[in-house]
Fold:
Amino acid sequence: KNEVEQSPQNLTAQEGEFITINCSYSVGISALHWLQQHPGGGIVSLFMLSSGKKKHGRLIATINIQEKHSSLHITASHPRDSAVYICAVFGNEKLTFGTGTRLTIIP
Amino acid sequence: DAGVIQSPRHEVTEMGQEVTLRCKPISGHNSLFWYRQTMMRGLELLIYFNNNVPIDDSGMPEDRFSAKMPNASFSTLKIQPSEPRDSAVYFCASSFGGPGPQHFGDGTRLSIL
Structure:
């Protein structure tokens, strides 16, 4: 079993829909990252969380330390949100990645 | 502000050759990460430096791979000898304070023939 599990692996939605991507982990962590990788290959760090909730524009990330679970939400989704979203956890000075969620937003 | 700068952007070379990838982190950042991304394995952490000292190199695949950070503004990842299975995109990222938000370079696309 992977230490970091993401779901779903693939998600296709219509423009405007509310999107949720989940990340569950089994190790103790000091921080969790959400990364976005666009089709061109560039990687952008969206959020770093150690507790609670963060919001940036239409993106919201939450983490529940007790349940070892984080969610990334996108409100009013847009085709430019189409990308691979990767969860990564940092614990015991090790960084472990989920396998990513490929999101496609259809106009 | 300049972001993380990687060079070269693309490298194509024959197997057996030495390959050197370079990274300049964001000024002021004290943590630097080397990653490899392939279709089969996704994104993998190879090595992580904090204050120029390697903290975790458990992701370095084998002795053919080595990484150095001689100072706070420069790091190299070397493969010698290179093999076709080393073909991948190699990313460098930097952050302030280890687990802090990371800034990624554009990556080096490496093809070993």
Summary: The radius of gyration of chain A is 13 Å.
